[in-house]
Amino acid sequence: MDFPFSIRKIIHVDMDAFYASVEQHDYPELRGKPIAVGGEHRGVVAAASYEARKFGVRSAMPSKTAKEKCPDLIFVKPRFPRYKEISQKIRNIFYEYTDLVEPLSLDEAYLDVTENKKGIESANQIAREIRHKIFEQTGLTASAGISVNKFLAKVASDINKPNGQKTIHPEKLEEFLDELPVEKFYGVGKVTANKMFTLGIFKGKDLKKKTLEQLIGLFGKSGKYYYNVVRGIHNSEVKPNRIQKSVAVERTFFEDLFDEQQIDEKLTSLSTELQQRLQKNNILGRTLTLKIKYKDFSLFTRSITNEEYFTSDKEFFATAKKLWELRPFNKPVRLLGLSLSHLNTEEKKQVSVQLKIQFQEFENY
């Protein structure tokens, strides 16, 4: 296979059920039991242990639904300062190998180890060492994906979860992507996957048959992304000073919503989830945006900017309700979303690091 991109060595490290695993580590009586981090009577699940996932409990699921799926589910209040403390220990391990670390959240990050501080040629070996050190120092397990770019590394890290790793070798990219189910492509959600299914697109090889023009016509701007990634092309660099400009949560509903009480319930759930994401990353913001997509796919967005930062899910809900009252149409709703911008993240000058890429290292990948 000819490669229309530079061969880099990227690792995606993802902690296994991070919040829930921390609670089970700190409180041994919770080990082996189905637990959910979050509020039991109101709100959503922030994280679920693997024992709970067997019952279908997932993060972002309403707590009431989670309890219905798993009657023996144990709810544990989140302890974000503790999660942040452990996250910092994990990042310190990353920095032993490279300064090119791009955290995505407290529990996952990309690492570019094309050139690394220890001079180790095998990215696979680096990932094993990192996972071993994380377990030694925190008692927690991590999974890792290794490949030539961030997209493939992210996909790979899910394959052998929990407590495993997967390398997608440069010479195996085409074979791997051809057989990869489209719902496993990072960036393809349930709605998009279902649309692809109706078009006869089930695997990468089906997606590859579509021209760039066809994909853009079908999926808009995302079409170019799908066209590239199915060919192994994803040129986004690992950005160590990645600045987050907004935080968003949204839900597409299987049945269109019209009832005001249903809308209130969904806005409450979204407000709670948004607040949890902000706490997870120690972020505040001043501008709240409500996004509404109607049954006919028409879109409405409206924002309110405060002089002070939002500080609670109650503020999010109250503001979202004001924005809801400003909607121009009284039609069935298929999607609701909330996003927060004008964040307290400081702008930092990015330092561009030019890597010297070696192309003849496949045996050490």
Notes on the protein architecture:
With 365 residues, the chain is of the alpha+beta class. 36% of the residues lie in helices and 21% in strands. It contains 13 helices and twelve strands. It has helices at 18-26, 50-53, 63-69, 80-95, 123-138, 150-157, 173-179, 190-198, 204-208, 212-219, 222-229, 260-281, 313-325, and strands spanning 10-15, 35-38, 45-48, 74-76, 101-105, 108-112, 142-147, 165-167, 246-257, 285-294, 299-305, 333-343. The protein has a five-stranded mixed beta sheet with strand order 5-6-1-7-8. The protein has a four-stranded antiparallel beta sheet with strand order 9-12-10-11, covered by helices on one side. Strands 3-2-4 form a three-stranded mixed beta sheet. β5 and β6 (108-112) form a beta hairpin. α4 packs antiparallel against α5 (123-138). The protein is globular. The protein starts with 9 loop residues before the first strand and ends in a 22-residue tail after the last strand. The model is unreliable at 346-362 (pLDDT under 50).
